Amino acid sequence: MKNKISEIFGRKMILNTLLLSALALIAVSCDKDDSVSMAEAETSDLAELKRGRAQAAPAPEEASIAAIAIKAGFTELVEALAYVDSELDAGLVDLFLNGTDQYTVFAPTNDAFTALYGVLGIDEISDLPAELVLDVLLYHVTDGRRAANSVVPPVRSRSITTLLGKEFSVDSNGGITAIGSTAKIGPANISASNGIIHVIDAVLLPIVVE
Questions:
Q1: Which partner for 186 in 45, 83, 156, 190 could form a disulfide, CB atoms 3.0-4.6 Å apart?
Q2: pLDDT score, position 38
């Protein structure tokens, strides 16, 4: 399985490099006003995250993790869960929709998935093997109800062990360094009946792209 995953992502390393280069050129070409707006937004997100880090876990809400994801429009994430269930009978949708066990989910936005599809040269999540998608999804979840105060460290990086059995680290600014990618947390501390959601801006990859 590791060979299959490495082969899939390894073939796309050049595309990944080209994409990053293109993004860098786009960033340079942005006007001053856009740059200021982005900086202000990042400052606001960081301030909110640090406030959340200083607080205890929010009380459970009535809606479940999956119900919140569906209502909030995390369509790509929900489709990934449904795809894995249909192919592997993994039971992930039911787990996060109706389950009572507590989990912390690092939820990629639709834009995060779209960026990944562009790197891989695919159109949708079902273009990837279901086994691979399952590994990626499990890499975004950890046991327990972990608010920002137990995820984002005050100083040194903190390791998060996922349901896949592999770790990623989080720094004091909410930056995530995964095995094969990086991401940023924000917003955080979205409370559900069966856990907490932290939104992230990239899909975490559980392998190193070589």
A1: 45
A2: 39
45 is written with which tokens? 């997100």
CB neighbourhood size of 71 (10 A): 9
Q: How far is CA 118 from the centre of its chain?
A: 17
The length of the chain in residues reads 210
Six token digits for residue 134: 């399952």
Contact 202, 173 (CB under 8 A): no
Residues of the chain with pLDDT under 70: 1-56, 209-210
Q: Output the pLDDT for position 51.
A: 57
Chain Cα centroid distance, residue 134: 14
- Residues 6+ away with beta carbon under 8 Å from 146: 57, 104, 160, 196
153: left (phi > 0), else alpha (psi -120 to 50), else beta? beta
Q: Which helix (H) or strand (E) holds 169?
A: strand 167-170
The answer to whether 153 and 21 have CB atoms below 8 angstroms apart is no
Q: How many Cβ atoms are within 10 Å of 8's Cβ, its own excluded?
A: 16
**pTM more than 0.85:** no
Token pair 């399952």 is found at 134
